[in-house]
Design brief:
The structure holds two protein chains of two kinds.
Chain A (H helix, E strand, L loop, with lengths): L4 H10 L12 H8 L3 E7 L3 H18 L2 E7 L2 H13 L10 E4 L1 H9 L27 E2 L2 E2 L4 E8 L1 E5 L10 H10 L12 H14 L12 H18 L14 H9 L5 E4 L4 H7 L7 E4 L5 E9 L7 H11 L2 H8 L17 H8 L16 E2 L4 H16 L3
Parallel strand pairs in A: 1-2, 1-3, 10-11
Antiparallel strand pairs in A: 3-10, 4-5, 6-10, 7-8, 7-9
Chain B lengths: L1 H29 L7 H7 L3 H30 L3 H13 L4 H12 L4 H6 L21 H22 L5 H10 L4 H30 L2 H6 L7 H9 L7 H39 L5 H32 L17 H41 L6 H12 L2 H15 L5 H26 L2 H9 L4 H12 L1 H17 L2 H6 L7 H9 L4 H29 L11
Helix pairs in contact in B: 1-14, 1-15, 1-16, 1-17, 2-12, 3-7, 3-9, 3-12, 3-13, 4-7, 4-13, 5-7, 5-13, 7-9, 8-9, 9-12, 9-17, 11-12, 13-23, 14-17, 14-20, 14-23, 15-17, 17-20, 18-19, 20-23, 22-23
The chains are: A alpha/beta, B mainly alpha.
Chain lengths: ~400, ~550
């Protein structure tokens, strides 16, 4: 395990990853090195369906490439980031505990900014040519942060609103309509408490609806214009808060908690970052059969989920094999099956061979899922600084009861 | 001689095992508090006064309330049939992990919860859940209730374990013969004898209640949350620049806990004076029995009912198909959730069992060695030593675990079952010590004198007299340690590097997803393991001493 003094010196001088890290360009060597490795995939563990999917991927990885996959179930992705940070602080530059992280947005920006990532590797993966980089620019642009091949996409997500069609025959299709509806139906809508990921996404969605020039959201926050640009958002929130569930005196913690409120009939409108979630939950008996989904006029925010490999991963070769496997058409089609996950694929369907294409065509999207054509435009994620700033301000305004 | 030497060294070894990790971890975690003006930024956070007040308020309120219920139950009812019933029902509840208890209570009390469902729509007229703020209320009432549910069984167990050494029956008899009411007699004559033994447990309860994280997240307010819950949010934030603020917050949290403990100490002195004055009045206060008895019984039964209801709710969810408001029961039952959870449950349960058995056995052994050394060599633990022992219970876990994890990383031991068991030991040992030290020290030394006079060696006295006579207390302490280990979340996650998967790490990860069905399956197993340990702790002495009247509890 000990490195020779020369190797340490070399590593220090060249600032390359310490030990001989696998080279994604030499895929045969990667496969060979990966065989027999156990990859620790740190992924949010709050959804049993996702956990099941990951363990299925593990079976495939073992059968196809001899790579064992273990999911380390996290309550928050930030735990894995913190883990790598503390490893770096402790000087553990190889043999790290984290091999693969399900990541995007601010967590990716933080790791990229601190030089905590292995790679670039994503665009050298054998399955990369299948990725729909033209039709889904979010596969290479994570919250306006270029991925530079430091993370590999594996699922597309788009914000959809879920509503109980038995109680809400005509769902609101925009921020203004939602405000009117909430005032007419007090206590029947809420959103997860920022800085929760989905809750902040909702705020950004509203911001898209009330801002004059949405292009500005793709730039980093400019402190000079920030107050002026976000004033309509806070005005909107000031109006809707008294009409929220519990009059805004409590908020659900996250996406599943919001979904649970919808399931319990405590609210009539919820939203999710997964177009197929409602159908899957109905099929599992967790949501009433009357739930349907809709998007807002003008589009809703969409982004991609990625996997990244820490700079000190003990099993980088195995991790790359798993990242590549996640882009396999068979795996992607399974993820898109609403009975399994209902995640949208990152692949370009027209680039697929006949049998692979047929796997996607055969999918029944489910009773509550919008057809791809009805999903409308996916709005790009604003620059990550908006997420941070808006959630901080939200906390200052609404998060500490006066 | 060598055994003697090892024994003499036991207390120091134990203290090192306890305090070393805490102090090292603390240093690692708190260092950032003095960097990057963490404290100044913390003081800028507008939620600080409220979060601090919430920590203090819910911690003190729940401690006082649970102490009152536990004392009331024993004072008014001990020996009666109702007491035995409540005790039987409450003991298993000690094993319920905090997170599971919180989720169970939440499902019971929520406006869309089980109670509302059972009463709707026929009694309430609700066809959809009312918009009522019951959980996560700004005053922290739901959180306080949840903490009381968890602490009453614990305090009761400690109290029961301490009672036999306080000579309660004869004291009560004397008071009764003087014409005192039962409750008044108990409070004036038994409590002063029992209190020194249970004081550390009460302090631990207060410290724990103020720093609980999992329960605060489920039941507590969020605008802002309690200080400890906010600390975890900060410490796990990907925004690394917030970490100094978290470290500063940990420092404030520590100060708050110490202040609350000092307050409790003052209250003790005050109450003792008051007690003396009340005793000197000579009033017999028989009337107190009339309403205190039913009140305590009501409190105890309420705790049992709510806790059992919550657990039953979770159990039912684990088998539930569709279950929408206002149906009182699921549309149909099934094994879907169990089938889905099964592949993960087995290995996680095994790992949990291994860690708990390992750390509880180690802790019990160490504590016995310490106590025996204390007795044999007349060692007196100084105040400093006691504080070191308490450190893990008094420190908010988030304040020293990240630093400890970093230490584990550097030394290369993290990630192994042994390292995690060692980390568990830090939390398990104080509880085992707290549970055992009092009955041990209260053991009548005249037995040992009699034994020695008959020619028994110190070893023989230990094995043939002390151990059997204290078996019940020892096993109870081990079971408490076992339950504590099963409930550990942060130490397992951080020291295990995510590679050591227990029922609790799985359950907490799942509870962030709010899926009641899967949470139900894990909560059931989380409950089953410690339950087994407690059942053993109760059954074993009863079986061994079935024909010795003097060894029965309450004798």
């Amino acid at each position: 395990m000990k490195m020779s003094a020369a190797a340490i010196l070399l590593a220090a001088c060249t600032a390359l990853p310490a030990a001989a890290q696998p080279d994604p360009a030499d895929w045969a060597a990667v496969l060979q090195e990966a065989r027999g490795q156990t990859v620790y995939w740190h992924a949010w563990g709050g959804d049993p369906r996702i956990n099941d999917f990951i363990s299925w991927v593990g079976e495939e990885a073992l059968a196809r490439h001899g790579v064992s996959l273990t999911q380390v179930k996290l309550a928050s992705t930030a735990d894995a980031v913190a883990r790598v940070v503390s490893e770096k602080q402790a000087g553990q530059d190889q043999g790290g505990a984290v091999d693969l992280i399900w990541i995007n947005g601010e967590n990716f920006a933080a790791m990229k900014g601190k030089g905590l990532l292995f790679g670039p590797f994503a665009e050298q993966l054998p399955n990369w040519p299948l990725v729909d980089v033209a039709g889904k620019p979010a596969t290479r642009m994570d919250f306006t942060e270029p991925t530079l091949g430091l993370e590999s996409p594996w699922a597309m997500a788009q914000l959809v609103f879920e509503y109980d069609s038995a109680r809400v025959p005509e769902p609101p299709l925009g921020a203004g309509q939602l405000l009117d509806w909430a005032k007419a139906n007090p206590g029947r809508f809420t959103y997860p408490q920022p800085p929760d990921y989905l809750g902040t996404t909702f705020l950004k969605q509203v911001l898209y609806g009330v801002i004059d020039d949405p292009e500005l959201l793709l730039q980093p926050v400019d402190p000079a214009s920030y107050d002026r640009l976000t004033a309509p958002l806070w005005a909107w929130l000031d109006q809707i808060t008294p009409a929220l569930w519990r009059q805004g005196r409590a908020y659900p913690a996250n996406e599943p908690a919001l979904g649970q409120l919808l399931a319990d009939g405590e609210i009539d409108i919820a939203f999710a970052f997964n177009t197929g979630r409602a159908s899957a939950a109905i099929a599992a008996g967790e949501l009433p059969g009357t739930i349907r989904t809709t998007v807002w006029t003008g589009g809703t925010i969409g982004n991609a989920s990625f996997v990244a490999i820490p700079y000190n991963a003990a099993h980088a070769a195995g991790a790359m094999v798993v990242a590549n496997l996640l882009l396999d058409p068979q795996v992607q089609a399974r993820a898109q099956d609403p009975g399994v996950l209902g995640f949208q694929t990152v692949l370009n369907l027209s680039a697929l061979s006949g049998p692979d294409r047929a796997r996607f065509d055969a999918l029944d999207l489910g009773v509550a899922t919008l057809a791809p054509d009805d999903l409308g435009p996916a709005l790009p994620e604003p620059h990550a600084s908006w997420m941070t700033r808006i959630s901080q301000d939200w906390t200052r305004r609404y998060g500490v009861a006066q | 001689m060598t055994a003697d030497g090892a024994l003499r060294f036991a207390p120091r070894l134990t203290l090192l095992l306890m305090a070393g990790p805490v102090i090292a971890g603390l240093a690692g975690t708190l260092r950032p508090a003095f960097e990057a003006d963490g404290m100044a930024r913390l003081l800028d956070w507008p939620g600080l006064p409220r979060a601090a007040a919430l920590s203090l308020g819910t911690g003190i309120a729940s401690t006082v309330l649970s102490l009152a219920i536990a004392l009331g139950l024993v004072a008014a009812l001990q020996g009666g049939r109702l007491f035995t019933l409540i005790l039987r029902l409450l003991s298993p509840l000690l094993a319920v992990p905090h997170a599971a208890a919180a989720l169970g209570l939440a499902f019971l009390l929520a406006p869309s919860g089980w109670i509302a469902r059972a009463l709707s729509p026929w009694a309430t007229g609700w066809t959809q859940p009312p918009d009522l703020l019951i959980l996560n209320d700004p005053a922290g009432l739901a959180l306080t209730a949840g903490l009381v549910l968890k602490e009453v069984p614990f305090l009761l167990l400690i109290l029961i374990a301490a009672l036999p050494q306080a000579d309660a029956p004869r004291r009560l008899m004397l008071m009764a013969s003087l014409g005192y009411g039962r409750v008044a007699g108990w409070m004036l004559a038994v409590l002063p004898a029992v209190w020194p033994q249970m004081r550390p447990a009460v302090y631990a309860v207060l410290a724990y209640s103020m720093t609980a994280v999992d329960m605060a997240i489920v039941l507590g307010p969020a605008l802002p949350p309690t200080l400890s819950a906010q600390l975890v949010l900060w410490m796990t934030s990907p925004d690394l620049s917030i970490h100094p603020v978290a470290a500063a917050g940990a420092l404030v949290q520590l100060g708050l806990v110490l202040a609350a403990l000092a307050l409790l100490r003052c209250a003790e002195t005050g109450l003792a004076r008051l007690g003396c004055r009340l005793a000197l009045t000579g009033r017999r206060r028989v009337w107190a029995d009339r309403w205190l008895g039913p009140l305590a019984a009501g409190g105890g039964l309420l705790v049992v009912l709510v806790m059992a209801g919550g657990m039953a709710g979770l159990a039912l969810w684990s088998f539930a198909g569709p279950w929408v408001f206002p149906d009182a029961l699921p549309e149909r039952l099934g094994l879907d959730a169990w089938a889905r959870a099964a592949p993960g449950l087995g290995p996680a349960a095994l790992e949990t069992l291994l860690l708990a058995a390992l750390s509880a056995a180690l802790a019990t052994g160490l504590v016995l060695a310490c106590l025996e050394a204390e007795t044999r060599f007349g060692l007196k633990p100084g105040g400093g030593a006691l504080w070191l022992l308490w450190l893990p219970l008094i420190m908010p876990q988030v304040a020293f675990l990240p630093g400890l994890a970093e230490l584990g990383l550097r030394s290369g031991v993290e990630g192994s079952t042994w390292a995690v068991a060692a980390a568990h030991l830090v939390f398990v040992l104080p509880y085992v010590f707290l549970s055992l030290a009092a009955p041990w020290r209260a053991w009548d030394p005249r037995f040992a004198v009699a034994g020695a006079a008959l020619g028994a060696t110190p070893g023989r006295i230990f094995w043939r007299l002390r151990l059997p006579m204290l078996l019940r207390a020892i096993l109870t302490a081990a079971a408490v340690g076992f339950a504590v280990s099963v409930g550990q979340y942060l130490p397992t996650l951080l020291i295990g590097g995510g590679r050591v998967t227990t029922l609790t790490t799985e359950a907490v990860a799942l509870s962030s997803g709010g899926n009641r069905r899967i949470i139900g399956t894990y909560a059931m197993l989380q409950l089953a393991l410690p339950l087994f340990a407690f059942a053993l702790a109760l059954a074993l002495p009863a079986a061994l001493f079935r024909n010795r009247a003097g060894m029965r509890p309450g004798a």
